[in-house]
Every structure is written in C-alpha cells, then in structure tokens.
From TrEMBL:
Source species, domain of life: Bacteria
Coiled-coil annotated residue ranges, if any: none
Annotated protein name in UniProt: Circularly permuted ATP-grasp type 2 domain-containing protein
Domain Circularly permuted ATP-grasp type: 82-459
Gene source species: Leptospirillum ferrooxidans (strain C2-3)
Length: 484
C-alpha cells in the first residue's frame, strides 16, 4: 500500500500486522481492498477523512470526558481504513465469545441460587459474597429465562494469526454499539464502490435484533405478544447519551428517564399524554446503585422507586439484569475459564490474559516488583480511567500508583502488556500501523448470538496501546466477509 506522504514505519516483527504478511503481501481478507486502494490517490483519502469528520460533527456524534483537566463533550475520532476479518477468523471470535457469555449467565444464576461453584471450591466464597457488586436483594430471584446478561461487550485483542485474548467482559451497561452502526453508515456513504466489490456482512439489523431478542425472551416466559419496551437513560448529561437516544430511535422504543416511570402494585408504568401505560421491558443504561432509590442509593434522582419490587415479582424484564456487576468485576474475570469448564464441560475457545489479583499476597509482591512492565487496573474501572500502563508511565506516576495499590490491594488487578496487533490507519502523514482492539456485541435471549461486526478501537498515538476514546483513541468500521 503506497499511500504515504512520508515513509511509514512498519510494525516490529513481533507485532502481528493484520493486513500484511511478513513478505508484505496482503493477507487473504484484505486482497480485494488492497487492489482497490492501489487505484486511489492519497489526496482522495485526505478529502474522505475530512468529509467523515465534518459529517460526524454535524450529526453530533460525541462522548463526554470526565476530570478537571479534560472534561467536556468531544467528537469521537474516526478512521476511514476498515478492519477486515475473514469468515473463518470471525467464527473463532463468535464461537468463543458466545461460549463465555453462556457460562457467565450460568454463573450468575448459580451464585444467586445454589452457589454450586462455591461449594465445589472453584471460586472462593469471599470473591462473591465480599464483592460490593453482589446484590443480596436478588437471592433466589430468577429473571425471565434465567438470563442475566442480554447484551455483552467482550473486549478482545489479537497477537498472532490465530491467537486472540479476552481483556475483559463488559456485562453491566456495555456501550459502543451506536458507534459500530454509525461507522458502517459512514463507510457506506464514503466508499459505496468498495461495498459493491466486497461481500461484507451487514450490522444495521443490530437494534431490531436486540429488541427481538428481549421480546422473544419475555414471550417465551409470559406469552405477552405485544410487550411495551423502553430505553432508560440517566439523561442528557450522561457521557453515552448520544448512544441512548440513537439506539432508542433505531429500536423504535421510547427513550425515558426515571421521572417518566412509576411503580404501582409491583408493576412499572410510563407516563404518556394518553395516560399511564404498563412497561414490560426496560433496556436500562443506569447502574444498579442508582436504579431504585427505595433499596439502593437513597439520593438517586435518576432511578425509579420500587423498580426492584416489580422485578422480584416477575413483572419487568431488565436488560441487563440487576446484579450482573459481580461478573463484570475484573477479578472475577480470572475465573471465567473455570466457569466454562464447570458449567459447560468445555475448554475455553478464547484465552484470558494472564492476570494477577492483588488481593493475593504473592501476586501483589510480583506486581510491586514488576510494576513498570505491567498494566494495572481497578477491578471496577472502565473507559481507561484509573489505570496505569507501566512501560508508558513516568517514575512519579508509577510511584504514585504504587501508593494507591498499597492502600487497597484488593481493588486492583494487573496484566502483562501484550503486543496488540496493528491495522493500517489514516494519520496526518498518510497510512501507518496503529494498535487495535475489538468490542463485538453478544446478544442472549432464547439463544446466544453475536452481531457480525463490532467496534474496533484504535490507538491513534504512535506506539500507544491505549485505545479508549477517553484516552486519545479512535474507532474504525469492522468488516466481516460473508465468504472465504
């Protein structure tokens, strides 16, 4: 690909380049795209990149940054060079991700009921019962179909042609699906001729597939043929409000805030101009703590008082279910391979990243001795906040973080810095390799499936391994080829 204004740096031989083989020939999934790129002048790509940025700005596709130095709304950076997977590569990711979510759903049902995995000595009781995200209020409460995680965002990295690792499982209120959809819409607008050349799996059915998944699950339990569904948002000041509004519109459901709902006789109702209407399904984007001020945080102004009563009475489907946070915890993540074996009797199809739990004395000592080589994260953290990338941190940053660890070791896990794969990315100098990860979306209802696409996040800074948009990363469209 000869599209740079200045010589591009090629990835280190130890870093897997997803587009090119070591012999600099395009890998099979990229062959058609490469032939098309060979015919495109660099000036056209600059024009297309500028057009994409202008369109995203006009559409108001933003996210919020938190923190005194960087707070405010930002436009999410978008890269016009897609990431492409063959059908066989995608099959590995899909089968492995669906397997994880089946096991996690079984785990969540178990810990709120018989706790067989604890009795078997596979997971320490303290890991569950001592977890702040475990909800005693939900013991022996069964959600419709026994499904807790209806929407999961599984963060995956690649280090070789056939070697993928799961970094974490996002199981509470996973975000990013709207960017997956908008990225695809943008690419089809900018490069329609490429979609004519390549057989790319669509993703635009995601909102309706999600709605259908929830409705079918409810129908299988209660036979309700016309369930009323809503999307519950914290409001316009939430960092993901754009996504909430976008998905509600695409799903064809009402976007509501806590004040729009009320509970009467253990049933949830929505206030409308025609009167009250019973609600059967809530796709909620509010954390457990703020969801019901009657039982959880009393100061919550964004929840619905009595929602837990309706949930325990079986009169509402919440997606995702209350209490999923205990499985979202980064220290619980380390047990997922054992969950797969225990509940499914299968070997994990996707690997976990080696993880050190700092509540363990030996792990703590190792991490303190090697902190400059590791990535350290808070067990309940998200969005790239509160983490330390040792190799990219100053001595002061490392020492300050060491003090945080020593103050509360159980609040942290650590992982080695993997050699994340790279994809060609359009930067100021032309096209250059940048590190990427992937968040595909797994839907669980009467069955488990994964949308053939996902949110590819890219570290736009040269050499950076941090892909979060809140930390300077951007996004790409993710193409899955329908045929080999």
């Amino acid at each position: 690909m000869n599209k740079t204004e200045t010589p591009q740096k090629t990835p280190s031989p130890t870093i897997f380049d997803e587009m090119f083989s070591p012999e600099k020939t395009p890998r099979p999934a990229y062959e058609v795209f490469q032939r098309w790129m060979d015919k495109v002048d660099i000036s056209i790509l600059h024009h297309k990149q500028a057009e994409a940025e202008a369109l995203f700005k006009r559409l108001g596709i933003t996210f919020s940054l938190y923190g005194a130095e960087q707070s405010g709304e930002r436009q999410i950076p978008f890269d016009i060079i897609p990431r492409i997977f063959s059908r066989s590569e995608w099959r590995i990711l899909s089968n492995g991700s669906c397997q994880r979510i089946r096991a996690i759903n079984a785990f969540l049902y178990d810990i709120y009921h018989g706790r067989e995995i604890i009795r078997a000595g596979i997971i320490p009781e303290s890991q569950i019962m001592g977890n702040s995200l475990y909800r005693k209020e939900l013991e022996n409460v069964t959600p419709p179909g026994g499904v807790y995680v209806h929407i999961a965002g599984v963060d995956i990295v690649r280090v070789s042609p056939h070697e993928f690792y799961v970094l974490e499982d996002n199981l509470r209120t996973p975000s990013g699906a709207s960017y997956m959809l908008e990225n695809r819409s943008m690419m089809m607008r900018l490069f329609p001729e490429v979609f004519d050349l390549m057989n790319i799996a669509p993703v635009d059915h995601y909102p309706q597939t999600l709605l259908h998944t929830l409705q079918e699950l409810l129908r299988s339990q209660h036979g309700n043929q016309s369930p009323c569904s809503v999307l519950l948002t914290p409001g316009v000041y939430n960092s993901a409000y754009f996504e909430h509004a976008f998905l509600a519109e695409q799903m064809g459901v009402e976007l509501v805030e806590g004040q729009d709902l009320f509970v009467s006789n253990d049933k949830v109702y929505m206030r409308t101009t025609q009167g009250s209407q019973q609600v059967d399904i809530i796709y909620r984007r509010i954390d457990d703590d703020f969801l019901d001020p009657k039982y959880f945080r009393k100061d919550s102004m964004i929840g619905v008082a009595g929602l837990l009563d309706a949930y325990r009475a079986g009169n509402i489907l919440l997606a995702n279910a209350l209490g999923t946070g205990v499985a979202d915890d980064k220290s619980t993540y380390t047990f997922v391979p054992k969950m797969i074996d225990f509940y499914l009797g299968e070997k994990p199809l996707l690997k976990n990243v080696e993880t050190y739990c700092l509540s363990n004395h030996e792990d703590l000592q190792y991490v303190l001795d090697h902190i400059s080589e590791l990535v350290v994260k808070e067990v309940g953290g998200s969005g790239g906040y509160g983490m330390l990338v040792g190799p990219a941190s100053s001595k002061k940053e490392i020492e300050d973080y060491r003090k945080r660890i020593l103050a509360d070791p159980a609040n942290f896990i650590a992982q080695p810095t993997l050699s994340l794969s790279t994809c060609p990315t359009f930067v100021n100098s032309g096209i250059a390799p940048r590190h990427v990860d992937l968040r595909p979306f797994v839907l669980s209802g009467t069955g488990v499936s994964m949308i053939p696409g996902g949110l590819t996040r890219v570290a736009l800074k040269e050499g950076s391994l941090v892909v979060n948009s809140s930390q300077g990363g951007g996004t790409k469209d993710t193409w899955i080829l329908e045929e080999e």
